[in-house]
Amino acid sequence: MDTNKNTAVKSNLQLFGSTKVMVVSALLIALSIIFGKFLKIPIGDSLRISFENTPILMAGIFFGPIVGMAVGICADIIGCFLYGYSIIPLITVGAASIGLISGLLSHYVFKEKLAPKVFFSVFSAHIIGSMIIKSIALYRVYSTPFEVLILRVPLYIGTALVESYLIYLLLNNKSFSAELEKICRK
């Protein structure tokens, strides 16, 4: 591993222990729980429209893969406790992977252009975390039929478009970006 990668990993670990980042992460966890458990729009018995992953994606893109993964894990577990769901480890892994993948791609793959960085990070995170891992969990735990699971693909494409655009607008806003930099600074 070269020195730049070591420095970037060290920086992400230091962000994980920052009080400012932990406070913002707690807010993102709360938003994820509210969006996913309390403001969802059910579509039949097995599908729902929700933006629970938006705060997890934000954590990964804003603060890196470690914070994004931690926000995904905490949001899923705390949300299950608050709403009375049982914790399904594979769904928790899916939520964690959304934060991890969005953070990895936005911090280590795309560094120059904001729009491709955000869109590629969000779509990749949803493909792996939402469309693959969480769908496998729904099939294994609830025996959700494949015909229903395949409907998650267009649902998450639409959701990812909205989330990408929202995160892009936030990061493109000079005031928001300046505040975000202050949070990430020591």
Average pLDDT confidence is 90
CA-to-CA gap between the ends?
Answer: 25 Å
Physical arrangement of strands within the biggest beta sheet: 1-2
Structural class of the helices, strands and pairings?
Answer: mainly alpha
- Strand proportion: under 5%
Characterize the largest beta sheet: strand count, sense, and whether it forms a barrel: 2 strands, antiparallel
Low-confidence stretches: none
Q: What Rg, in angstroms, do the CA atoms define?
A: 16 Å
Task: Fill in the keyword field for this structure.
two-stranded antiparallel sheet, 3% strand, 9 helices, 186 residues
Structural commentary:
The protein is mainly α. It has 9 helices and 2 strands. It has a two-stranded antiparallel ribbon with strand order 1-2. Helix 3 (53-63) packs antiparallel against helix 4, helix 5 packs antiparallel against helix 6 and helix 6 (114-142) runs antiparallel to helix 8 (152-172). The longest helix has 29 residues, at 114-142. The relative contact order is 0.13.
